[in-house]
Structure formats: structure tokens, C-alpha cells
Amino acid sequence: MNTRSVVASLGVRERILETALDEFYASGFHGATMRNIANSAGCSAANVYNHFENKSELLVEILRRASDEQFTATRNALRKAGPHPVDRWRAAVVAHALFTARNPRACLVANSELRYLGEVDRKRVVGSRDAQEQLFVDIAEDGVEQGIFSVPHIHQAVTAVLTMCAGIPLWFRADGPLTAQEVADDFGVYALNLVGYRVS
Amino acid sequence: MNTRSVVASLGVRERILETALDEFYASGFHGATMRNIANSAGCSAANVYNHFENKSELLVEILRRASDEQFTATRNALRKAGPHPVDRWRAAVVAHALFTARNPRACLVANSELRYLGEVDRKRVVGSRDAQEQLFVDIAEDGVEQGIFSVPHIHQAVTAVLTMCAGIPLWFRADGPLTAQEVADDFGVYALNLVGYRVS
After folding, report:
1. Among B189, B169, B193, which Cα is nearest to B180's?
2. Which of A55, A93, A111, A163 to mutate to test binding with chain B, by most B CBs within 10 Å of its CB?
3. In terms of Cα–Cα distance, which of B78, B20, B80, B82 is closest to B49?
4. Nearest CB to A152 within list B115, B159, B186
5. How far apart, in whole angstroms, are the C-alpha atoms of residue A160 and residue A155?
6. CB contact under 8 A, A198 and B198
7. I want to staple B113 with a disulfide (CB 3.0 to 4.6 A). Which of A47, A104, B29, B85 is the partner?
8. Cα(B89)–Cα(A90) distance, rounded to whole angstroms?
9. Could you tell me the residue ranges of all domains in chain A?
10. Is A112's CB within 8 Å of B113's CB?
11. Stretch A98-119: mean pLDDT, rounded?
């Protein structure tokens, strides 16, 4: 392949991923067809199969990417947050919530369609999620150890916060009264409250 | 129809609803087929169509029932909770979370498959949800007015709490380390924390 066809091929791959997300969102994993995805991407089904073995492979790639990007956003926010658990917890939640509000379809599909993946494929996606969760657990543990946070169970509190954020696409509208950033900031407050830290 | 066939007919209807929930959970709304539902219920597809016009009608009935039952559980808990916003908020959240932990499939399907219903059908389901949400909003407003709770936005805080509860089936396992009641009680603590009330 020359450079030009590599670039063209990359373009097709990205377009397939984009239209596959549309299709999974609109029709669910079981309702989605490779043919529809190909049609929307403006290529042949055979072309889709050149890039992705099957629907599972497409869903895995979409969910891993979304999860990796969200993870990166959270880590970038943490890099600027300094060492204090309150700042770190708020920064991590705000970044996580902001990503969710700005990528509602990928986050919704991640929650609703993950259960249709086989065990192996699910593990490939869940690994990236677990790493993300661990970031939050580390901060919460730090806060509890320093006597700043207080929760019945740290992992459970983290999960509660992450699922609360994961629910944002169920109700948030970009053209609604609050911006994604405002919603994310509010969720930072809820998350600090939730771990027993009173935001003054 | 004599009494016996009425009873038999009711039995079939219930069985269809039960197997339809299994099918929606396993295959999603778009992947579910009336034929599979009929097979699992041990009746003919024609028989399923006698009771439900189409898949949407089945999904609406399942989601409305689940929502109504959850609503009833919450109201019953509130009846025993007395007048104080802290007691009422905790009681409502614990009842809501407990129902979710005990009815994971219906609650998961409600969140992941609702978007596939048409506008009219979605409104039939969402009405019952809105009523439920209003219960929580009333208590939170009461708490804020009395200066006991403090949140950036009341509706948003309620939604955060309800989606946090809705996420329970994504991770809770009945054979895990905590019982459904213990998880629900913990969520009562998180929800009180979240609205700025410090559980001592």
C-alpha cells in the first residue's frame, strides 16, 4: 500500500467506526447490521469486513476508544490538580462527567450494549474501565486515610459516582439550560458531597 | 369466557411478560422476536399477538409495571418515614435502590431499551417515571427550604441520585459480599451526603 492508500484506508476505518456508533445507538447491538453500517459509511460490506471481523469487533473498538479517551481526559485533569484529595477528586469527576456529557452516544452504548459482548471481548473493554475506576479508588482511599472523606465502602462509593456520571446522557441536552461544563462542575460538587466532604 | 379460561388466559399473559423481559434483556429490543418470546412462553406467536399488538406494546407494559411497582415501594416506605426531610429522603432512596437491586433486569432494560420506543409509547412509560421523580423532588425541595439540604440544582441532584441507583444492576450481584438491603442502606447514606447533609 502506498501512503495515499494507507491514508484513504484509515479514513474509511474511522468512517466505519463513526457510522457503527450511530447504528449501535439507533438499533442496539443485536439490531445493528454490518450492511447498514457499510451503507452509511459509503462502502461495501466486504470493505467493513476488511477492517473488522464482525460486529463484536466493531463494538469492542468503539467502547475501548471511548474508554481510553475518557481515561486520558481524567488523567490530564489530575496532572493539573495538585496533591490534595479534594482537588483531585473534584478534578477527576468533573473531567469524567464532562467527557460523558460531550460523548453521550458512546457512553450510552457502552452501558447498554456491553452485556451483549462475549466474555473475552467484554474483558477487553472492561480492563480499560477498571483502570479508570482505580484512579478514582486511589483518590478516595487517600481522602479516607487523611480523614477528609468518609464512606461506607470506597469501591461502592466510586461506582455510585461513576454510574451517576454515566447517567448524564440519559437526560442532558446540549441545547438545554446548562452547558456540559456547568453540569460537570455540579457533578464535582455532588461527588465531593457523596464521599462525605461538605463543599462550603 | 368462563372463569377457568380467564385464569388460564391471565396465566399466559403473565408468562409472556416474564419471557419477554428475558428476551429483551438477552437480545435487546431490536434483537428480540415475538417468535422467541412465544417459544419461551410455551405458546404460539398468534397467542402472543392476542395479548400484545407488537414488541413495543410488550416493552411498554413491562416498563410501566416495573416503574409502577417501584413507585409503590417508594410510597409505602414514605408512609412509614414521618415528616422529616432527612428520614423521608433516606427512606425513599433506600426503597428505590432496594427495588433496583432486586429487579435488576427490568431496571436495566428500562434504561437501555427505552430509547427504542416511539414518542407516544415512550411518553406512556416516562409519565410513571416522572411521577416517581416528583416524589424525590418534593422531599429535596422541602429539605432545601428548611436549610437541611444544599445543592446546586434540585432536579439535577434528584436525577443524579436516581441514575446512581439505576446503575446498581450494572455491578450488584445477589451472591456478592453485600445483600441488596445493605447496598440500599449504603445508597441512602450516599444520597443524604449528596444533597449536602452530613450523615454522622
Report:
1. B169
2. A163
3. B20
4. B186
5. 9
6. yes
7. B29
8. 25
9. 1-52, 54-194
10. yes
11. 91
Between 3.30.300.20, 1.10.10.10, 3.30.470.20, 1.10.10.60, what CATH number should domain A1-52 receive? 1.10.10.60
With contact defined as beta carbons under 8 Å apart, do A100 and A73 qualify? Answer: no
Smallest CA–CA distance from A31 into chain B, residue: B30
In angstroms, the CA B119 to CA A71 distance is 35
Average pLDDT over residues B81-93: 97
Cβ–Cβ pairs < 8 A, chains A and B? 108
Specify the higher pLDDT residue, B136 or B121. B136
Give the span between the Cα atoms of A52 and A58, in whole angstroms: 6
CATH 1.10.357.10 is held by the domain B60-194:
yes
- Name the DSSP letter for residue A196: T
Q: Look at residue B44 and tell me whether its pLDDT is greater than 70.
A: yes
| Residue B46, amino acid | A
* A160 → closest Cβ in B28, B116, B187: B187
Residue of A nearest to B27 (CA): A30
pLDDT given for residue B2 in this prediction = 65
Indicate if the pLDDT at residue A6 is higher than 70.
no
Taking an 8 Å cut-off on Cβ atoms, the answer to whether B159 and A152 are in contact is no
Q: Given a cut of 80, is residue B7 above it in pLDDT?
A: no
Q: Which chain A positions have a beta carbon within 8 Å of B190's beta carbon?
A: 151-152, 157, 160, 194
Residue B12 near residue B41, CB atoms below 8 Å: yes
Chain A residue with minimum CA distance to B193: A194
The C-alpha cell that represents B138 in the structure block: 418534593
Question: Regarding the domain with residue range A54-194, which homologous superfamily does it belong to in the CATH classification?
Answer: Tetracycline Repressor, domain 2 (1.10.357.10)
Task: Summarize the confidence of residues B152-174 as an average pLDDT.
Answer: 94
The answer to whether the CB of A114 falls within 8 A of the CB of A122 is yes
Whether residue B151 and residue A31 make contact (CB cut-off 8 A), yes or no, is no
Q: Which residues contact B123 (CB under 8 A, 6 or more apart)?
A: none
Interface of chain A toward chain B, CB-CB under 8 angstroms:
27-32, 108, 111-113, 115-116, 151-153, 156-157, 159-164, 166-168, 170-171, 178, 183, 186-187, 189-190, 193-196, 198-199
